Amino acid sequence: MKLAVFDFDSTLMDGETIEFLAREVGIEKEIKEITTRAMQGELDFFESLQKRVSLLRGLKVDTVNQICENLPLMNGAEETIKELKHKGYKVVCFSGGFKNATVPFAKKLGLNGEFSNILHAKDRILTGMVGGEMMFNNSKGQMLLTIQKLLGITRENTLVIGDGANDLSMFQYADKRVSFCGKPILEKEANIIIKEKDLSLILKYV
After folding, report:
1. Are 55 and 35 in contact (CB under 8 A)?
2. Catalytic member of 7, 62, 123, 167
3. pLDDT score, position 26
4. Is 123 annotated in the active site?
């Protein structure tokens, strides 16, 4: 059995979910600045996530879901996942983003699983709080290790794909480490570097 793990924002999806949500309430610039610094490794991911989500307080859940279900797929995403599954890979998504996006996209793309965070809401309105499986800098690496142990998959048979600092923790557990249009901090640790927005370019390495 083989395993492929994709980041979601700016990897499977073309953009950052939280920036699409921020646009709705007119704070895209402020959130984008925090996101950029977090993805470059300049800010603690947990603290940056809490700060960004707090700025979304008051947004309606129905609005969040509508935006999330219509996010743009990255070029080549469907083709790549289909081919990886054909080659015997289990394909999952790890996201520091939110279930509102990863759940519908997992169904759309036929993923074997998704792990992400939950935007807390009360009376169908965001409270500005967040919790979940991908809150910290090392969350993706720990989840990858858990899945490998559970399914008996070796690092030799593991492919990971990401673009930012919070994807770094996966790299120590995978022999195929893809920086997809990635930040310098991630690119330094990758052994497969893709600089074009086309996920299908990964296929020549598998």
Report:
1. no
2. 7
3. 92
4. no
